[in-house]
Amino acid sequence: MNIFRFAGDMMHLTSILVLLLKIYATKSCSGISLKTQELYALVFLARYLDLFTDFISVYNTIMKLVFIVSSTAIVWCMKRDRVVRRSYDKQLDTFRHYFLLAASFALALLVNEKFTFQEIFWAFSIYLEAVAILPQLVLLQRSGNVDNLTGQYVFFLGAYRAFYILNWIYRYFTETHFSRWIACISGLVQTALYADFFYYYYISWKNNTKLKLPA
Amino acid sequence: TEEEEKHDEL
């Protein structure tokens, strides 16, 4: 574990806490893409198949459980909770995320660390996570002004993988045979997708204006 | 080695 990865995990956790706060405090999920939340739930379920077979550390196990439980709870809440689901922007959240699923799985079959069930699902989760934010970014562009909590949610979600890139650079230089090319390249793509969001987020923060993504 | 086979990152 290094400071970059720990900071990244804490930002990831923060993004989930901010999203939970928004949904439970405002009893609303307006501006949140259910499709992105469904993709994230799949990312964690596919990535943590080793939850009960490979014990890394208490921290690792607890965080995996937190990510799985929170992501499925958010999907459940947006689909089933009578109050919350009324505020879901169904007509705006129209990104065809099944293509992202299919493309990620196809790529995982071709590019993986080992052609085993667990490794293919691990690579699938890495590729899927890189593109999972797309429905959310499209929804933000369509829904015009973005409320603060939603903006902070997306910001922390983007920042966490940027810290993981620093973590990979650090591990590359400090560990002899460190090679996580699948995660590294996918993480770079993932962070790049947030580039324009980060730009407009910075502008809104600098000018102290409402965050607005151009359509 | 077996160790590095495991994905130790979240």
UniProtKB/TrEMBL annotation, chain A:
Organism from which the protein derives: Juglans regia
Subcellular location: Endoplasmic reticulum membrane
Keywords from the named record: Endoplasmic reticulum, ER-Golgi transport, Membrane, Protein transport, Receptor, Transmembrane, Transmembrane helix, Transport
One Pfam family, short name: ER_lumen_recept
An annotated Gene Ontology molecular function: ER retention sequence binding
Any one GO CC term of the record: endoplasmic reticulum membrane
Membrane topology according to the record: Multi-pass membrane protein
PANTHER family the record matches: ER LUMEN PROTEIN RETAINING RECEPTOR
Transmembrane segments: 55-77, 98-115, 121-141, 153-173, 179-202
Protein known as: ER lumen protein-retaining receptor
Family: Belongs to the ERD2 family.
Keyword Transmembrane helix: yes
Highest taxon in the source lineage: Eukaryota
InterPro entries recorded: ER_ret_rcpt (IPR000133)
Keyword Endoplasmic reticulum: yes
Gene Ontology biological process terms in this record: protein retention in ER lumen; protein transport; vesicle-mediated transport
